[in-house]
Amino acid sequence: MTACSRLQAGRAAAFACVFSCLAASAAPAQAALGDTAPPNVPQTSALAASQTFAGGAARVTSYVDAGGTRLNEYIATRSGEIFAYTWQGPTPPDFDTLLGRYAADWRSGAAVLHAAGRDGLHAARVDTPTVVVESGGHMRSYVGRAWLPAALPAGITEGDLR
Asked: In this structure, how many other beta carbons lie within 10 angstroms of the beta carbon of residue 40?
């Protein structure tokens, strides 16, 4: 049996807390990163709104999920592909549903950060070749964004994802 420091134990507890919060998070979004967006506004909220940006290269649909978190879904106008999500609210989104087929890449990247001791208590950035996920916040105040770097439409940068 090996002994661990209080710092290591604290990091392990924080990591476990993050994953347990994710498992118990709010209702999922309708489509995941990389999916083709449904033609209509998500039915998860009566407060949904859609607008175009970047000269019409993309549209953003904003809605509030069942947990009270505002989600912005970024959709490429030309392909209809969802290339990013941003969120802010009292509960984190359901990452498995939000990231879809990219969730395993995100989990692997998060595990590497944790093993290296570079996972933050209140914020983390998982940067893989296929997906980037930035998440952070405190209890009842979560923020973040996730995007597919290769799917960003021309003229749109990660700085445009707010």
From this structure: 10
Q: Backbone phi, then psi, for 146, in 5-degree steps?
A: -140, 140
Q: How far, in Å, CA of 52 to CA of 74, rounded?
A: 9
| 12 Cβ neighbours under 8 A, 6+ residues apart | 4
The stretch 69-97 carries a mean pLDDT of 93
pLDDT score, position 22: 40
Give the least confident one: 22-26, 34-38, 133-137. 22-26
Q: Which residue has the tokens 């996972």?
A: 119
Contacts 24+ apart (CB under 8 A), 80-83: 80/36, 80/37, 81/34, 81/35, 81/36, 81/37, 81/151, 82/31, 82/32, 82/33, 82/34, 82/35, 82/36, 82/37, 83/33, 83/34, 83/58, 83/147, 83/148, 83/151, 83/152, 83/153
Task: Determine contact, residues 58/156, Cβ cutoff 8 Å.
Answer: yes
pLDDT digits 0-9 by tens, 87-143: 999 998 888 999 999 999 999 888 888 888 777 667 889 999 999 999 998 888 999
